[in-house]
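Hi C.,

You asked whether I'd gotten around to modeling the 326-residue construct. I have! Everything is below, sequence then structure, no commentary in between.
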Amino acid sequence: MEQWIEAFVETSTDGLEPIEGVMYACGLTGLMIHDARDFTEFLENPNREWDYIADELVEDKKDEKTGITFFVRDNVYGREQLAQITGMLQSVQATEKEIDLGSLQLTIKNVAEEDWANNWKKYFKPFAVGEKLMIKPSWESLTEQTDKIVLQIDPGHIFGTGTHETTQLCMELLEKYVQTGDTVLDLGCGSGILSIAALLLGAEHADAVDIDPNAIRIAYENSDRNQIARERYHVAAGNVLDDEALQESYRGKNYDIVVANIVADIIIALTKQVPEYIKKAGIFLCSGIILERKQDVLDALAEAKFTVIDIKEKESWAAIATRYEG
C-alpha cells in the first residue's frame, strides 16, 4: 500500500491564493485550505444559525494557523517534490514585495522530520539520465560497471535528487549542448547537480548560486565527491533577482551556458538579466516550467532576443533550450 506524507505550509490570508498557485505549479492537487479568519468571522456573525458552539471547538480553532495542507508520496519522488516546493517558496518569499505572505514555514505533520530526512534514502538508487550520465547516491554502490559518466550526489535535507522530471530534462539538454571548455552559470543550483553535471560533461568552470545559504555547503560537498577542483567551481548564496552585488559578480562574464531550473515566473524575470551574463550565441537552458506556463516563458524569451533551439517535455513539465541573439 502506498504511503503518503502530510505537509503544511503556513501563510497569511492574503498569501493563500499565490501559495495555492505555487502548489499547483509543483503538480499538487487535492489541497486543503485553512483560513483562520473564516472561523473568527463565523463566531462574530450575529446571523449564524448555530446557537451553541462547544468550548473545545473554539479552543481548537483559536490556535489554528492559516495555510495549506498537501500530501506527497513517501518515497524519493515525494522527497523531490518537497525539495522543489521548498525552493519555490523561498523564491516567492524573496520576490513578492506587495503581499505579506507570512512565514511560509513548511512542516511535515504525520512523520518525524528526522525520520523523513533519512527514510526516503532507501528508495533512491542509481539511475541513468539521457545517454551519458548516471546519477548515484553517495551512500550507494554500483552493482555493475557502466560506461556512463557517474555523478555522485547527496542532496542534503532540503534539496532535490535529480529524479524530478524538470531536473532530468535539464540534464538531457546539458549533455547535448555543453562543449569542452565551456563556462557555465547555474541559477538556483540547490544541491549543485546541474552545474556539477556540466563540469563532468566537459565544462571548464561553473559558477552557481542559490537563494538558500545551505546550498553553498551542500554543493561544495557534492563537487568534492565528484573530484571537481575548487578552482573550477564557485558557489554563492543570495537572491540574484534583486541583489546588485551578486548581479555585478556575474555581469559581463560572457558565460557559454546559463541554466535555470526554477519556476516559470522566476525564469520570465531572469530573461531581463541573463543577457548581461551570457555571450552572444550563448545557450540559455531553462526548466521547471509547467506546460500551462510554457507559452508565457516562450513569449518572454522571444522579447529578450532568445531564439528557441530545443524543447523537451516530460509528464506535465517542459524544458527549453535557447540561443541568445542580442
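If it helps when you're writing up: Confidence is low (pLDDT under 50) at residues 39-44.

Thanks,
B.
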